[in-house]
Specification:
ATP binding; ATP-binding; 285 residues; five-stranded mixed sheet; 19% strand; nucleotide-binding; alpha/beta; Rossmann fold; 3 domains
Length: 285
């Protein structure tokens, strides 16, 4: 028996590996049990080369029984609806323009940063952090707390492995300058085959009216996503790792939590992130 918790597919490489894996496992009579927020038919929806994953979807439908729990209540949100006065004094999510005159969140973040034994907080560093051989800019960090700006963590070449190491090294993360993510999805054309090669690919945005004709005539791949969906995808991955490892997260954002993601192609995925962010504000977390 093989069990997956919160099973999903978001990458073409993962999709191809899973296709071979499931085919081999099911041929050997292995029992597969999985939980997922996504129905089988919608796995890897709108993903690159999704047609190559469709046989795996049919395989899962043939050899597994899909059971919809149809829960009407998000228990993470239910827990956070009963926040106590104690939590209110320990606020972790602040809405404020970074260049405002507010002193509430800077004072709170400095308090969080300097909490703990002097041996862990006295020797702080305001220099980049080395993670998997790559440099990540920080505001500052010490042995237990790392303070980053959003762009340093989510608007660049970052992977899930980077977030796993950060969550493993620090018990608290402070994240500032978090912008509104998502936006209106746009139609794009990506040259066919370039995503599998070593050379950089060229992606261009065109008007909707000309989109399908151009893609049909050139044989290029059709995509639809918002400009800031890539940072949003990394933010989702970051929250997943911090949540799974029980890392405390303090955020300064430009908008309330419920408005962090607007439109875009990741609305479904971001609902879980919002749920997790909400629970991370609770005393239970």
């Amino acid at each position: 028996m093989l069990c997956f918790d919160e099973f999903f597919v978001s990458d073409i490489g993962d999709a191809m590996i899973l296709a071979k894996l499931f085919e081999a496992l099911l041929e050997q009579g292995i029992t597969l049990v999985a939980t997922s927020n996504i129905p089988i038919d919608e796995l890897y929806k709108n993903g690159l080369q999704r047609q190559r994953f469709l046989p795996t979807i049919e395989l899962l439908k043939r050899f597994t029984q899909e059971i919809h729990l149809s829960g009407l209540q998000d228990h993470r949100l239910h827990q956070s609806a009963h926040l106590s006065t104690e939590l209110a004094t320990g606020q972790r999510y602040f809405v404020d323009a970074f260049d405002s005159d507010s002193i509430e969140w800077p004072a709170r973040f400095e308090q969080v940063f300097n909490a703990g034994p002097p041996s862990e907080t006295a020797a702080w560093i305001d220099a980049p952090l080395l993670v998997h051989g790559r440099i990540i800019d920080t505001v500052k960090y010490n042995q237990r707390v790392a303070w980053f700006e959003f762009d340093a963590l989510c608007d660049g070449p970052r992977s899930q492995l980077d977030y796993i190491e950060i969550a493993s090294r620090f018990s608290t993360v402070i994240l500032t300058k978090v912008p509104v993510l998502g936006g209106e999805p746009r139609s794009w054309i990506r040259a066919r085959g370039t995503e599998d090669g070593a050379q950089p690919f060229e992606t261009v945005a065109i008007e909707t009216a000309a989109f399908e004709t151009a893609a049909f005539n050139t044989g290029n791949r059709q995509l639809s996503y918002a400009v800031s969906d890539d940072p949003a995808r990394r933010f989702i991955s970051l929250i997943d790792e911090l949540y799974d490892q029980g890392v405390e997260l303090y955020i300064q954002a430009y908008v309330p939590m419920g408005e962090l993601y607007s439109g875009g192609a990741l609305s479904f995925e971001f609902r879980r992130t919002l749920s997790r962010l909400t629970q991370m504000q609770s005393l239970e977390y």
